[in-house]
Amino acid sequence: MSFPSKQQIRGIVFYQISFSEAGANRYARPKTITVRFGDSAPQKVILNDAEGKPQVWKFAPVQTSDITINIIDLYTDARYQEYTGFQEITVVPSDETIPSDSQTIEAVEDQVSTPLTGENKGLFDEIEKEIEEDVLNAEAEELLRLLHEFTEKFERYLRKKAKAKP
Known about the structure:
By secondary structure, the chain is an alpha/beta fold. Strands 1, 2, 3, 4, 5, 6 and 7 form a seven-stranded mixed beta sheet that branches. A hairpin with a 5-residue loop joins β2 (27-37) and β3 (43-46). Mean pLDDT is 76; it is low at 110-119. The protein has two helices and seven strands, in the order βββββββαα.
């Protein structure tokens, strides 16, 4: 989402996809997401499985003109796995009150992967486009998922190793 100019915000309220008249767990609810403010590093956020209930992620005020949210993982007990998303996402400006009925969620700082750069970024952009166009088969998608998981673990290892150096 983009704003016409920079806004100072201090929270985001997420409402997982939910249609109460259709029954609980009809659609796959987002579980793990990444949120990026402008060109900053993405932050990983874990949502509770709280269909139809607001969940707020509070953070130190940030000035940004755009926010990118990507769904990484889902709660998988849904009847219709192919449908997911959010019913609503509300950005909370610094001068507004955060809804009191919201569950508070946190970012998982140590599990955020760094953005891809250089020649690998072009390759991954091409693969991502093929995924969006449903060109990849199930085996290729599983390999990409495993590669992503390995990359995250390797990056955590490198960060720990860098912190341990005197």
